[in-house]
Amino acid sequence: MSASATTDSARTARVSRGHAYDLLAELSSPPNLFTLARLVLIVVLWGFAFTGHSVVVGIGLALAFVTDVADGYVARRLNCVSALGGKLDSIVDSTVAPSALVWILLLHPEVVTDHLVLLGVWLTVTYGSLVLGLVRHRRLANLHLQSSRIACVVQYAFLVDVFVASEYSPLLLYAAAAAGIYSSLETLVLQVAFEDVTDHERSFAQALRRRRAPA
Questions:
Q1: Is 63 within a domain?
Q2: What pLDDT does 8 receive?
Q3: How far is CA 42 from CA 16, 30, 99, 100, in A?
Q4: Residue 93: which of 199, 210, 206 has the closest Cα?
Q5: Rounded distance, CA 9 to CA 15, Å?
Q6: Do residues 83 and 148 both lie within one domain?
Q7: Inter-axis angle of helices 54-77 and 146-164, to 10 degrees?
Q8: Stretches in the chain below the pLDDT threshold 50
Q9: Which of 85, 122, 70, 117 is nearest to 100 (CA)?
Q10: Rounded to a whole number, what is the distance in angstroms from the first to the last CA of the chain?
Q11: In this structure, are 135 and 178 located in the same domain?
């Protein structure tokens, strides 16, 4: 091997190690550690769901909500918001809903069987919005809208109630479904209406005003 080839290989190795160290450092930041903790928590809760520990699943989901709030709050407070952190947060968030749905089917199937039409509409709108984001914008449509924040709170409250309470509250189910459908519809409309949708959108009305404002 020539000296130049050896030098190029060494330089490539150094660059690769540098990228790996940068990635590890970013993943080790406080907000991303909260996000990774939520991912680990969801994996662990699968075991409790399969063994019938409904209350433990509910408590775990309450902790998942705490980490969901904490990662964004800490990122803003420490001014360490990053593209990687946003993508990681979106990916982990996208695992919570399908996991919780399976856990409900395992532990409390009556919640689903009693509200098949409502849950069908809810899931169709939610995942239709996600698919549209992947097709149109090549990304998960997990926008940080105000409606999404409200939906997150209400949906976690509903999930904790389902797994912890002796009887679930239909009112919380309706509120969670309504908030989720509205948030997904707003996300869907944003993606159809605008080509340059970002994670910084707060609502359709705000996005419309910003784009109509004179340059």
A1: yes
A2: 47
A3: 31, 19, 8, 9
A4: 199
A5: 10
A6: no
A7: 150
A8: 8, 10, 13-15, 18
A9: 122
A10: 58
A11: yes
Both tokens of 78, joined, read 């420490």
pLDDT (tens digit per residue) in 77-128:
877 777 776 778 888 888 999 999 999 999 999 999 999 999 999 999 998 8
The three-class DSSP label of residue 201 is coil
Q: What is the pLDDT of residue 209?
A: 83
Judge whether 100 lies within some domain. no
Distance CA 137, CA 164 (A): 38
Distances in Å between the alpha carbon of 113 and those of 73, 109, 116? Answer: 37, 6, 5
Asked whether residue 72 is domain-assigned, the answer is yes
Whether the Cβ atoms of residue 30 and residue 74 lie closer than 8 Å to each other: yes
Cα Rg for the chain, rounded, in angstroms?
A: 21
- Number of domains forming the structure of the chain: 2
Contact 119, 112 (CB under 8 A): yes
Q: Which domain holds residue 181?
A: 108-215
pLDDT at 86: 73
pLDDT at 215: 57
Considering the domain architecture, whether residues 213 and 113 belong to the same structural domain is answered as yes
Structure confidence by residue, pLDDT tens digits, 85-99: 677 888 888 899 999
pTM equals 0.82
Q: Which two three-digit tokens encode residue 60?
A: 């775990």
User: Taking the mean position of all CA atoms in its chain, how far away is CA 105?
Assistant: 21
Query: Do residues 114 and 213 both lie within one domain?
Result: yes
